[in-house]
Every structure is written in structure tokens, then in C-alpha cells.
Write a structure and sequence with these properties.
Oligomer: single chain
Number of helices: 6
Largest sheet: none
Strand content: under 5%
Amino acid sequence: MYEDYETTDQYRLIVNIAEAWRMELGFAMEEQPGFDEPAQAGQANRAFRIMARCILQTVNQPAENLAELVRRVLFQAARRRLQSGGLTNEVVQRVLQMEPAGRDDWYAFLILTQWDEIPQLLEPDHTEPD
């Protein structure tokens, strides 16, 4: 059901906006996920999730849960981005599961962050810079 959204204009728009943000803002973008909860995420992360929600609201069916739709679409976009970067399915799953399930702020982070940041997540002694 949610995978069908990958073929929609709305999905492509969300992915294209993420690409434009990465190109325009680069490392200056505050895309970090929240600590204890998604509301604590960086401003770009929160704004991106709001934008995705507004776009998906235009195609959301009345019987569908909009928050779940946003989570699933961001999950799919994050998964596709990690796969297109050459990560194996096993590594993709590990990265997606680094935060509790359903954390759309984590998926937004994986979509928005510069690719150079992704391999650093896989290092055993990975810690956030001060």
C-alpha cells in the first residue's frame, strides 16, 4: 500500500526537495534528529517533516492515518537513498533501526544529511561532535 506512493508525483516532490536542500544548504543544514523525541529535532528536520505532511495530506485518503503515511513514505525515501548509495540490504536495515521504530525524524535525517555522514554512523565508536 505505502510502497505505491513511490510512484506518485508527491513522493518524487518530497525526494526532489530533499535533494535541493542538500545541494543548497550542504553541511550548514541542521538536519539532526531529536534526542528523546522527534519534536527536539533540528529546524530543517522539523520543517522537512511538515512539508512532507502537507504534500501527503493532498493525497491522503480519509480512512488513512496521515502520521503513519508520512512515516512510511519517509521510511521508503530513506531506505531508497541508503540503497542507492551502495549499502547492502543488511547495512540499510541496521542504519534504519539505529533509532526506535517509527521515528520519522530519524528517517528525515537520513534523507537530508550529506552522504559523507552516513558511513560515520556505521563506525563502532561513532559519537556526535560537540
